[in-house]
Amino acid sequence: MSVLWEDSAGLPPAAAKGDSMHRFMLLIVSTSMTLAALVGTGHAASSMRDALSERFRPSRMEMATGSDEGHVVTKGTVLRLTADRIPAGVLRTTQLNTKSPRFPVHDYARVAIDERGRVSAEPGSVALTQGTRMVVLNLKTDRDRVRLFTHTLDPVQLPDGRTAHGCTEFVFTFDPTTLNTADIATVNARIEQWLAVDSAS
Known about the structure:
Structural class: alpha+beta
Strand content: 25-35%
Shape: globular
Radius of gyration: 26 Å
Largest sheet: 10 strands, mixed
């Protein structure tokens, strides 16, 4: 009498081996598809960031103290606020010790605009008026957000009578598909509803 041995799952050895190989191949295919999707998303995010950096070219500012603090020495794209009473924090610079270089401490006031155009804003030290000229110091893209870190091109008057440069972070939320497909036209249009490119600068 012949005996047919089975594994612990109740399958003959040959069938069990074939089932294991099938599961292994499914795992490889699934992993490859996941990696391909991640690479594609990363490429799209990089393309979007590059395109936005070209449209909203970053500026560089002076790190000195006093009247030159915050002065823009390398001017990128100049933008104009299209809305009134946009909150802003106040730029200040500091250093770790007397010999270290100065670096900016941006007290950014955040203004968040969702997909439907609804706005939530943090309180700031000063309210910027419509038409205020702004420059971009940094730009970041996430899975579903574009963040612009902006700085007033010129000093603005504070409530106490002093003048300083204002700082506002604009956060635009998008459907992830818009950023993954690098739909730059849609993204630019949304941003420029709030920050119009100043063609005169």
